[in-house]
From TrEMBL:
Source species taxonomy: Eukaryota, Fungi, Fungi incertae sedis, Mucoromycota, Mucoromycotina
Limits of the N-acetyltransferase domain: 16-169
Name of encoding gene: PARPA_13265.1 scaffold 46269
Keywords: Acyltransferase, Transferase
Any one Pfam family match given in the protein's UniProt record, by short name: Acetyltransf_1
Coiled coil: none
Organism encoding this protein: Parasitella parasitica
Regions that span the bilayer: none
Top-level taxon in the UniProt lineage: Eukaryota
Protein name per Swiss-Prot or TrEMBL: N-acetyltransferase domain-containing protein
């Protein structure tokens, strides 16, 4: 269950002060020993740098909406709505992470629901995400949230980072969002 101290909000420019902390949360969620979301045995390298996080916070590059989950003043989770000009009406949920020390408390579900609630206000009717095909536990979790597999597979875009089968693909998942 989510602890009462957890709050989620969209980032503002002054949140650049949290860029290092937020990048560490993303990397810990995907590249550390702890937590059930780790990909450390599948993918090498950093998932996110502090410089990348700064660009996301300051919205340098492509437009997006980024949310942080806070436990008091500490960043413990992230999620981003990434706009897709190739797919009008659809946006990708990305940069989704919860610190391993805060996983299994409902924070991840709360982050995804926050992104899903924001999407209609931004003009999107469909949420999309890409999940590694060799992660059945992650796929099952997203299905519990109402996402379904589309049948589309796309190649992993950084094969040099893979520690396993270089032919690994992402599965595309989608979910309709309610227009408010």
């Amino acid at each position: 269950m989510v602890q009462p101290t957890i709050s989620i909000r969209s980032v503002v420019a002054t949140d650049v002060q949290y860029k290092d902390e937020a990048a560490k949360v993303v990397n810990a969620a995907y590249r550390s020993e702890g937590g059930w979301t780790t990909e450390k045995d599948i993918v090498s390298g950093e998932r996110c740098t502090a410089e990348m996080m700064q660009d996301f916070i300051l919205q340098n590059g492509k437009p997006h909406t980024l949310f942080f989950a806070f436990d008091q003043d500490q960043v413990v989770g992230t999620v981003q709505i990434q706009y897709s000009p190739e797919h009008p009406g659809e946006a990708e949920i990305g940069l989704f992470s919860v610190s391993p020390t805060h996983q299994s408390r409902g924070i991840g579900g709360k982050l995804v629901r926050q992104a899903m609630q924001e999407m209609p206000r931004l003009g999107y009717h469909t949420a999309m995400m890409h999940v590694l095909e060799n992660r059945p536990e992650i796929l099952a979790w997203y299905k519990k949230l109402g996402f379904f597999e589309t049948g589309e597979r796309i190649p992993f875009i950084w094969p040099e980072m893979l520690k396993v089968d270089k032919d690994l693909h992402f599965l595309t998942l989608k979910k309709s969002v309610e227009i408010l």
